[in-house]
Specification:
The protein is built from 14 helices and 15 strands. It is an alpha/beta fold. The longest helix is centred in the last third of the chain and has 22 residues. Bound molecules: pyridoxal-5'-phosphate. GO terms for molecular function: oxidoreductase activity.
C-alpha cells in the first residue's frame, strides 16, 4: 500500500504533477527550453515577491547552499545555526576553504535580531547564512526582524536557507533585502526531489564577480549568465522533466490555488498539528517561533515510535522520527506542499486510534 508522506521531504506529490514528468523530452538548447525556464522564473518572481533574478539548479537544495557561500564570500562568512541544517552550511564553508565562523543556539531555540546584530557589529563579515525554518527542530527564525538588522549593513550578502518553508510560507524577498533565498523541489513546492531554486540579487551578482574561485557546477554567476546572455538557458543539461512538472505546479499555485491561500493553508495545518501536540504531547520548539510547515513533538508519553509508524504504515500514512540527536526524544509531522487539512485530520485521528489517546 502506498503510504501518504507526512515527512519533511520528500512530500506527497499530486498525480497530475507526477504525470508531467513522464512527458516526451525536448532538446535543452532550443527555444522551447528557454521558454519553459522563463515561464518558471516569472512565476517564482511572484511567489518570492522579487524583481531580482531566479536561478534553477539540477541538484537538491544543498547544491545551491554550497554554491551560495562559495560564490559570494570574499572576506568571511557568519553562519547562524539553530540545528542540523545550519551546521551543514558551516561544513560546506569549511570544506570549500571559505573562512567562516559558526554561531549557534541550543536546538529548539531561534536567533533574535539583537544576537545577530552583536555579530555583525564586529565588521568582520561580508556574508551571512541563516536557516529560515530548521527542519530538525521545527523552529522558524524571525526572519522579518532579523532582516531589519541586516539592512543596516550594506556590505553583507544575506543568504537564507528556506528549503523547508519557501512556497509554503510568505517570504517577501526584496522587501526583506534577502540576496539569496534557496529552496528545493521536494518540500513545500510539492515535486519529486532533484531540482532546486534560488533568488539572486544584483548585489549578490556584483559580489560574485569579485570572487575568483567560485567552483564550477554550483557557480551561481555562471547560472545567472546563461539566463541573461543566452536567453534563459542552463550551463549543462537540466532535468527537463522536473521543469515540466515545476511549470505545471507553479501555474497551479499562482493561478488556481492562489499564493496567499497556499500560505494560509499552511498556517491552518500548523495550528491544527500544534494544538494536537499540545493536548497529547508537548511541543519541542520555543512556542514563539513555531514552524508553519513541520511540527516537532516531544515524546513525553514515551511511546514506541517505530510501532506507531509501522501501524500508520498499515493504514497508508508515514510520519518522521526525530533528527540526529533528537532521534529518540522527538518525532515530526510535516504539513507542507499540497497536503490538505482533511488528510492531516485523518492522520491525527489515526494516531489517536493507534495510541488509544482521548
Ligand atoms: C531538506 C533541507 C535541506 C537540504 O535540502 P536538500 O534538497 O535535501 O539538499 C536544507 N535545509 C533545510 C532546512 C531542509 O529542510
Amino acid at each position: 500500500m502506498h503510504k501518504k508522506l507526512f515527512i519533511p521531504g520528500p512530500v506527497e506529490v499530486r498525480q497530475e504533477v507526477l504525470s508531467q514528468m513522464a512527458l516526451p523530452l525536448i532538446g535543452h538548447r532550443g527555444k522551447d527550453a528557454s521558454q519553459l525556464q522563463e515561464n518558471i522564473i516569472n512565476n517564482f518572481k511572484k511567489i518570492f515577491y522579487t524583481n531580482e533574478q531566479i536561478l534553477l539548479s539540477t541538484s537538491s537544495g544543498s547544491g545551491l547552499m554550497e554554491g551560495a557561500i562559495r560564490s559570494c564570500t570574499l572576506k568571511k562568512a557568519a553562519v547562524f545555526s539553530i540545528g542540523a541544517f545550519g551546521d551543514r552550511w558551516y561544513e560546506m564553508a569549511i570544506s570549500n576553504n571559505i573562512v567562516a565562523d559558526k554561531f549557534e543556539k541550543q536546538w529548539g531555540e531561534a536567533f533574535t535580531k539583537e544576537e545577530i546584530e552583536r555579530v555583525l557589529e564586529t565588521g568582520e563579515y561580508d556574508l551571512i547564512t541563516i536557516t529560515h525554518n530548521e527542519t530538525s527542530t521545527g523552529v522558524m527564525n524571525p526572519i522579518e526582524e532579523i532582516a531589519e538588522v541586516i539592512g543596516k549593513y550594506p556590505d553583507i550578502i544575506f543568504c537564507v536557507d528556506a528549503v523547508s518553508s519557501a512556497v509554503g510560507s510568505k517570504i517577501e524577498v526584496d522587501k526583506l533585502g534577502i540576496d539569496i533565498l534557496i529552496t528545493s523541489s521536494q518540500k513545500c513546492i510539492g515535486l519529486p526531489p532533484g531540482m532546486s531554486v534560488c533568488t539572486f540579487s544584483t548585489k549578490a551578482i556584483k559580489r560574485a564577480e569579485k570572487v575568483t574561485y567560485r567552483g564550477k557546477y554550483f557557480d551561481l554567476l555562471s547560472l545567472y549568465k546563461y539566463i541573461k546572455d543566452k536567453n534563459y538557458q542552463y550551463p549543462s543539461t537540466p532535468s527537463i522533466s522536473h521543469m515540466y512538472a515545476l511549470d505545471y505546479q507553479l501555474n497551479y499555485i499562482v493561478n488556481e490555488e492562489g499564493i496567499e491561500n497556499r500560505f494560509g493553508r499552511h498556517k491552518v495545518m500548523a495550528k491544527i498539528t500544534e494544538e494536537w501536540a499540545d493536548k497529547y504531547f508537548e511541543l519541542f520548539a520555543d512556542k514563539k517561533y513555531l514552524s508553519n510547515t513541520v511540527t516537532t513533538i516531544k515524546n513525553v508519553r514515551n511511546i514506541d515510535f517505530s510501532y506507531l509508524n509501522n501501524e500508520l504504515g498499515k493504514r497508508g500514512f508515514q510520519i518522521s522520527n526525530g533528527y540526529g540527536i533528537l532521534k529518540d526524544k522527538t518525532f515530526r509531522i510535516a504539513h507542507m506542499a499540497d497536503c490538505t487539512i482533511e488528510s492531516l485530520n485523518d492522520l491525527l485521528e489515526n494516531i489517536n486510534d493507534i495510541l488509544k489517546l482521548n
